[in-house]
Amino acid sequence: MNVRDLRKRVPYQIQRDVLDELSVDQVAEKSDFKISTKEKLRDAVRCTGPRFKSCFLSFVPLLTWLPRYPFRENAIGDLISGISVGIMHLPQGMAYALLAAVPPVFGLYSSFYPILIYFIFGTSKHISVGTYAVMSVMIGSVTERLAPDSDFMIPGNDTNSTTLDIIGRDAERVKIAATVTFLSGIFQLLLGLVRFGFVVTYLSEPLVRAYTTAAAIHVIVSQLKYSFGISPQRYSGPLSLIYTVIEICALLGKTNIGTLVVSIVTILGLVAAKELSALAARKIPVPIPVELITIIVATVVSWQMDLKTEYGVEVVGQIPSGLQAPVAPAVSLLGSMVGDAFALAVVGYGIAISLGRIFALKYAYKVDSNQELIALGLSNAIGGLFNCFAISCSMSRSMVQVSTGGKSQVAGAISAVVILVILLKIGELFEELPKAVLAAIIYVNLHGMMKQFGDICSLWRTNKVDMVVWVMTMILTVLLNPDLGLAASIAFSILTVVFRTQLPKYSILGQVPGTDIYRPVEEYHQVKEIPGIMIFRSSATLYFANAEMYIDALYEKTGVDVAKLLSHKKKLEAKRLRKEKKAAKKAKKEAKKRAKEAADKAVGPDPDSTLPQAIILDLSPVNFLDTVGVKTLRNIYKDYGEAGVQVYLCGCQRGVVESMEKGDFFNEKVTKSILFSSVHDAVLYSQQGNSKEESYFKM
């Protein structure tokens, strides 16, 4: 005999009074103690020594965990992990800089400064912050919109010829990228300081995965010009992706064959190398730096074969050594990029906190969502001063950091040191690297995002509403670009929640024989309705958007249209009064009685005889009531009461009761005696004819 069978056979008995809300308050001795808003505010701003220390340490987590850093256990793993991730930062930083439409060296800056800031202020031990494809393409849409190539065309030697001022264009785009990054960091910092970390809850997992997939499509399209060696016109705004694809197709005849060959060879080589690396991962503890080997080989080949001169292959170009001094953001540009900066702030935080929570759950520690906002905000704001572009965390780098033994943020700091060495000594060696190779690295690294198209099939089987959110997010982001697409996707996702509350499931409940359990009668064969009592439940909360539908469903399910019933009753009452008035004119008191009896006889049988004795509204799914909801319940109670049907409410949460109190639902005639904690209490009270005698139920 298993535990489940034993549990089924365990009987229990309950013997108690039927309790309404007032009785429960008395028995449980309800507390009326409430903290005033003034006291809450005073407590929030009160500063004591221990409290100041706690706040300061939570603001700078490094001071908490670094003194207790287990050097012997973690040092070797963090060192190997930091070097491995630092090597990955080099090709990814340079490649993602192309997405941001800035020179590759600024991708290396973005892989250095923000990492050091996050090392000090971040709370996740395992995520690898730095350049990220989705963030880079969002930055690129801003830089190319505010600094298009057409603004930097200078007259050539010939009358009708023009030349692109690449140096001036790149300088302006770097300034724009740094400014929007700074502003997005300020947004994140402010949201963190006001404890607004919960904003990420509006980014559901289907929405985030669909958004990153759509952004990956934008990334791929934006890199096609480097793969084919063409220069398509830059489009902005809605449908710009479609226009860009059409433009690229029209320019395919001008493809640079040398560039295309470099792209194809690099892609095939990367795919083959990654497959071999995956097979060798079981035997080699440290992953093979495939991207690093690729850019080294490509740079050597480009230098030896002089691809730039002989075949017209576009290369990275000058990479200055050393670090740059901080530069103030361009204040004049802030007004034109507020929406873009906020989108960057939300998307970057959403991706980082989602991945951070996954690792925190796996390795049993806590990630502070508000502190993560502050850490990312400082990383972007300070990084923007050093000409970095917006950062988030990368799944691929984070997985490498974990798989190679990384156990703390020290691994991230070591990876920043690796980038520093590259910036100071090695960076200039990659000046002959073809941009087509960086584009190929991006394509291959995005294959994981492309696999997310499989979400459609899995969501179709599990939750079709989430599937619709996924598909719509994908379509909106592709058509409207990442910034507008994000806003439209969030709005659509919220609308699906609203629609679900407007289309709840309405049920009549019946009793499971021999128990105090009530279930929808249409879903169970053995569940029976209580004679003379209708128990009605909605699966959603009750508020202005579905209040009218709630009443209509109540009338339909109970089979009682109170409006028509009351109208009929009023007509009968008016008819009776007319007869009484007519009888009063013809006779005195006795004659009036006879006229009344005759009028009552003419009225016919009482229509209320077919009505249920009571209607019980199960409000357990209702988590809040607005003024319309309170008014709806008041009208239901009043209308059914006039029709001779008593209405009881059960399962009300404390907030719902408080809303009813504030909405003047209760008065001298309507008290909390109509409220019950459970459906069974309300049923017993109705059956006993409003007599609260002791009830005994045995199950």
UniProtKB/TrEMBL annotation:
Transmembrane segment boundaries: 96-121, 176-198, 241-272, 284-305, 341-361, 373-397, 409-426, 470-499
Alphabetized PANTHER family for the sequence: SULFATE TRANSPORTER (PTHR11814)
Topological type in the membrane: Multi-pass membrane protein
Domain STAS: 523-686
SUPFAM superfamilies linked to this entry: SpoIIaa-like (SSF52091)
A GO term from the CC aspect: membrane
Region described as Disordered: spans on this chain: 583-606
Annotated GO MF terms: secondary active sulfate transmembrane transporter activity
UniProt KW keywords: Membrane, Transmembrane, Transmembrane helix
One Pfam family linked to the record: Sulfate_transp
Protein's recorded name: Solute carrier family 26 member 6
Keyword ATP-binding in annotation: no
Listed CDD domains: STAS_SulP_like_sulfate_transporter
Location(s), subcellular: Membrane
Biased composition (Basic residues): 583-595
Domain of life: Eukaryota
